Amino acid sequence: MQPIRGRARRTGLPALLLGAALLFTSACSNGGDAGAGAGSAGAGGAAKTGTEASKAVVTVKPDDGSKEVATSGVLKITATGGKLTTVTVADTKGNQVEGKISADGAGWEPARHLASATEYKVHAVAKDEAGRESAKDTTFTTLTPKNTFVGHYTPEDGQTVGVGMPVSFNFTRGITNTEAVEKAITVTAEPSVPIEGHWFGNDRLDFRPEKYWAAGTKVTVKIALDGVEGRPGVYGKQTRTVSFTIGRSQVSTVDASEHTMQVVRDGQVIKNLPITAGAPSTTTYNGQMVISEKYKVTRMNGATVGFGGEYDISDVPHAMRLSTSGTFVHGNYWASAGTFGSQNVSHGCIGLKDVRGAYDGNQPAAWFFNESLIGDVVIVKNSKDKQIAPDNGLNGWNMDWAEWIK
Fold this sequence. Notes:
The protein is α+β, with helices and mostly antiparallel strands.
């Protein structure tokens, strides 16, 4: 019996070890068996554990790492097998690009052009029908233009101006893509009023409401020209926001045949002034004109406006420009006192009695100069001349609204 027990003990130890090994193997293989079971369950098993990849695929153009990317027409983000839920495009300063996901969730495009010479980061997320997300992050850099343009604008930031003041841009290069340039400039007013732009040629763009601004209006101009291709290969290089305020309403009406000017402020007549307008051979334009510049003393030389050597006065007092072609309302010290209110003797300007040196604040010209703002309106009527052209100065008010918005 002992030998038998001895054999039993000798054979029992390997059996125990084998059992432990089998137990160990079973324990280690339980996860594998469970995985095999989940695999046999198909997609349903994976969905329960949330490990299956989303069927949504996000595509971003331009490709990740792209350089010298065009500022418009290239950036597009799309999704297949799902819908876009989040799209963020921003520069390195955190300025986000405005855009909108399409109604079907299949695509996103920027609402405006991109800035030039700028690095952008894209983050886009899409979901498939099961709610599983897929994301894509890319980076690209826009082109650095060799040729650029800017717009010189008026009025200046922070100015208080008259009710006739338009927002006027003169561009340093002729613009062929006028739609893109105009879209990049936004003019708004508080209280709100419709404001439209109008092009004069290919290098000037003015904005105005249908009627004169209301007194006290706050106007904001957002300039986002950086990256706009104004003409082939020529890009805007300007981003700025400016604002100005409309002051009190002042509209002055000159009656050339009566030799008078009536000044109306906020609907009330505050002054009637005797004037002299253009002589029969050099009549004054009719129409609505806006004061665009003011000079306490300035030189006026007839040669610069087509009058040869007919006059050259180095110290014209209290001069305010009404047209690009040389129409001013200004002080006149060389005509006799009886001229004002009775005769038209000027070369097309509107003259008010004044003294040489512009030192006497009691003179009619000094009073009008001191009481006027850039942007105030001067209307001339009953002159034996044509109406001033809308682009001769800041005088777009001489164009009907229907024509302006074409």
